[in-house]
Amino acid sequence: MDTPVSDNTQADLKAMEEVLYEARRKIYASSVQGFFANWRWIMVWLTQIVFYGLPWLRWDGRQAVLLDVAQRKFYFFGLILWPQDVMFLALLLIIAAYGLFLFTAIAGRLFCGYACPQTVYTEIFMWIESKVEGDRLARIRLDSHPMNLRKFARKAIKHGLWVALALWTGFTFVGYFTAIHTLVRELAAWSLGGWEAFWILFYALATYGNAGFMREQVCKYMCPYARLQSAMFDRDTLIVSYDPARGEPRGKRKTDVPAREQGKGDCVDCSICVQVCPTGIDIREGLQYECIGCGACADACNQVMDKLNTPRGLIRYSSENAIEKGWTKAEQWAHLLRPRVLIYTGVLIVLVGIFIGGLAMHKPIELNVMRDRRVLSREIPGGLLENAYQVELMNASDAPRRVRFAVEGLPGVSILKPHDAVEIGASDNLLRPLEITVPTDEAHKGVYKIVITARSDESKPVVVHTGTTFLVP
């Protein structure tokens, strides 16, 4: 027996179906000037100067930042990390996550609005589009006209610039994994490797597609962060907010008479806030998951308020509690220091301290010792009992080193050929055998702990230790 469905439920289902299956409407966002727009462009310049410029920096004759996956070495200026140093990468990712949690708890989707690559490249692509095709109305008119020579030329120029920027972006990204000067030489000689060519084209296509066409669709449907924000927000989180107590009832009004005397709010329903929104939402409808917190609507609304000789801030960064309770800025800021913010801050400080401390204690020489399982223990001439090992030595510095080994932990324990120094090149690793002996008459049956030491031949030597076992059968 079918259960009857109420009219309200049917209306809700129909509304949900319209949202899920609605054809995409292209968003023609207007350009806007103001405080938040300036900060967005500051972040665009800052992030892109770092991204495009970092691979070209040199450090001691090599690329300053290089993630050399093939050689399993990561270079960060004077620091060289090996796979054994994965802890630093894990810590860095955890720090980034907690930093994101902290910023989100304080001021919403700051990362999305100002530093996310999707936002940054969309901003750049939209700037190119506006310079080639014109402002919002000009772009709408151009798209509504049938194809002609003028429209084709403008579209070709725009897409040509987009493709060039996307290819340069893909080339730069791959330059973090293959030395960028090597890429330039290979590209000039038309000898680029298959994998390098594939990844350059792959990231170029991703940039071109995401920033040129998908744009807000990535933020609305592909990015999981929009769905997670509700778990990190609370009613004291600063978000881009519309003040309905001040703005409603909205509508057109005379500018020479106060709004309240006309029975109106400060909002004149000009829809400028919607026209400048890169995701096409109406901020006056309240907090929505599509909002990336860029503040474009606040800049646009402030310009309208200036023309109406009305105080700014109808749309502003504020919290739900501050809007509803009419808090002053001082009261609003006082509520930012709440338990979750303090917890995130405390954890972040501890993690950063561990990361910095680990880097400070990181030694340029690493030593690993593995027992040679082919020969566990044997007697050799001279009344000695020998255990064989394989020693892996890694030089995580830009200078070659001479290293000597020593051992302790058992009476009479020593290394065969103890005075032979091992030569290891800059940022290189070395695998060599090491024979450790004890006098047979001092050896008693059992498994003993010993410590092997590697010491570099320098005025300020680097000393590393590692433990292993010595077997007496």
Please tag this protein with its features.
473 residues, alpha+beta, Immunoglobulin-like, five-stranded antiparallel beta sheet, four-stranded antiparallel beta sheet, 45% helix, elongated
Short description:
The chain has 473 residues and is of the alpha+beta class. Helix content is 45%, strand content 19%.
Account of the 3D structure:
By secondary structure, the chain is an alpha+beta fold. It folds into three domains: 24-230, no CATH class; 238-320, no CATH class; 365-472, Immunoglobulin-like. The chain contains 17 helices and 16 strands. The chain has helices spanning 7-21, 35-53, 86-107, 110-114, 117-133, 136-144, 149-174, 180-188, 194-214, 216-222, 225-232, 244-247, 272-275, 296-307, 320-325, 329-334, 339-361, and strands at 58-59, 62-63, 65-68, 73-76, 79-81, 239-242, 315-318, 365-371, 378-380, 384-395, 401-408, 414-415, 422-424, 429-439, 446-456, 463-472. The strands form five sheets. Strands 8, 9, 10, 12 and 14 form a five-stranded antiparallel β-sheet that branches. The protein has a four-stranded antiparallel β-sheet with strand order 13-11-15-16, with no helix packed on it. The chain has a three-stranded antiparallel β-sheet with strand order 3-4-5, with no helix packed on it. α2 packs across α5, α3 runs antiparallel to α17 (339-361) and α5 crosses α9. The longest helix is centred in the middle third of the chain and has 26 residues, at 149-174. The chain is elongated and about 110 Å long. The protein starts with 6 loop residues before the first helix and ends with a strand. The relative contact order is 0.10. The model has no long low-confidence stretch (mean pLDDT 88).
